[in-house]
Amino acid sequence: MQTKSQICPIRWQDNALFLLDQRRLPAEETWLRLDNAPEVAEAIRNMVVRGAPAIGFAAAFGVVLSVLRHGSAAGWRNLVDSDIETLAAARPTAVNLAWSLGRMTKLLAAESDDLARSLLDEAQDQLKTDREQNLRMGQAGAELIEKGSKVMTHCNAGALATAGYGTALAVIRVGHGQKKIEQVFVGETRPWFQGSRLTAWELAKDGIPVTLLADSAAAQAMQKVGINWLIVGADRIAANGDVANKIGTYALAIAARHHGAKVMVVAPHATVDMSISDGSGIPIEERSANEILDAAGIENCLPEITIANPAFDITPAALIDFIVTEKGVFRAPFEGAFSRLKPGKMT
Amino acid sequence: MQTKSQICPIRWQDNALFLLDQRRLPAEETWLRLDNAPEVAEAIRNMVVRGAPAIGFAAAFGVVLSVLRHGSAAGWRNLVDSDIETLAAARPTAVNLAWSLGRMTKLLAAESDDLARSLLDEAQDQLKTDREQNLRMGQAGAELIEKGSKVMTHCNAGALATAGYGTALAVIRVGHGQKKIEQVFVGETRPWFQGSRLTAWELAKDGIPVTLLADSAAAQAMQKVGINWLIVGADRIAANGDVANKIGTYALAIAARHHGAKVMVVAPHATVDMSISDGSGIPIEERSANEILDAAGIENCLPEITIANPAFDITPAALIDFIVTEKGVFRAPFEGAFSRLKPGKMT
What is the pTM assigned to this prediction? Predict the structure, then answer.
């Protein structure tokens, strides 16, 4: 079995952090070199790096840069704490960011002899652990897939959002390496085009056959091509198995059920939020109308027109067949299934 | 009852044809003045005017312009025939274009005393008849709708594609005038954005509350808002009731069925093609990959990525509740229902 993924959007080299600039994909593969923590915070804010796990790891390396810069100065700890605050504020809503920085802060308190080295080891370890977990999810998910499968995915639950392999795309990578997956289909993923710009690119880079299409063409592809699996990531999973994911996932899950395709959600167990009993408790972020209008070249919209731009939707557990985590595979029905997981904690 | 529609994209005035330039909507309401047939052909080719019926009517006025220009010249008939050929070639696949020009050619052969006048009368009559038929469909469709309905539509089956009112949007206009329809939802309609650019604009212009959203957000809107009806147009209807319409219609019909919303297709009876037994016989136009890539700002796509860009999809008759034509309303099941229509003929 061969599972490819040369793609990791985060690299440490020559005492600097290098980030693959995702704003420029797929036109250019530009790596930005960042030498201090405020630069890292700015890169997170500006979406050079995206995807909750990847954001956290970038911030962890930002702390290493801060200590390398300030570690020998008088009052260095205040300077580093200030940098950590800046990093934490870059995308305040990402759980992983706070988690990664929390691990770094704990190490700072321990005050080891070679602090920069131990912080760097921790940051590298976060990357490595994420890659291992993703590969484990990939293997667990791929076991469910039959030979000759055609798969649909949505948005980018890929290497570019993580330290490598991705979540849904880890399953697709392993499944393709095992020669079980023949072809992958991905919608462009309006309004941000993560499918067009990121997923199609990273699958093609890894030599996995991929077809890109408008989101609204997915149902017809299911009908004509015979899609066997819809495999997606998750932003949050409620205790009953309802899944919040990128807008459009729900429509795909309905179409998958209609065509007899199975639905697999792939996410680290920390995505399960046991404090939320069902999907109705998950807040849905409403984003700017410009994301809808800009691509159509509309600068001035009649004020009477209402624009709805929800970033996520809720796919009810009843439409999901499998939820794959690094701690095991859950099979529908999901009610009560997650009690063996430690809820809301990152490993 | 009040049914608004100030919008007609075609106007004859001061011996010239005026077309509402749909390429500039919704940013600008620019009317282009056209003084001769080659200019009309170019406007059709360049999508100044779009929608099969509207294209036909514009071409009919093009013939009037040709006769006004050449009618007193020696060998005028050859000059006019040449103009008609140019008009017919502007969008060779639109059935309505050939039909409209056929009516004009028949009049030319009759050689009446005031030829320009009789041609102009015919062109004006085509416009008038279309508006009347659309209003009739609107009234028939609106009778099916309950008070307090929320409606979803797709693409632009509107006034802008016809001589006024539209097809699906005629039902929505009448239903809103009868205070039965509270709110209309329309997806942006990738890849051409007819929803964003045309439908949202023309409904808002007529004072009909409209919400614009990404195509992939439609299913969630059905779930959260409680949509009662999906009302769409059709490009072709097979003898068994399968409907070819803008890509994305099929996904919406599946989602409508899933949420218990009813599906109404509104189209002139000439759209029913009795020579095609079911949807599998309807050819689906595959359009340029650039339509998918351009809006995402992708100039160079990895050559390994396959782009699928079907312009239409087939919604099986089994997902459709009503097909409304100007000759009557058909209720599912549709097998054998269309035999009382004269198939494939334009009225």
Answer: 0.90
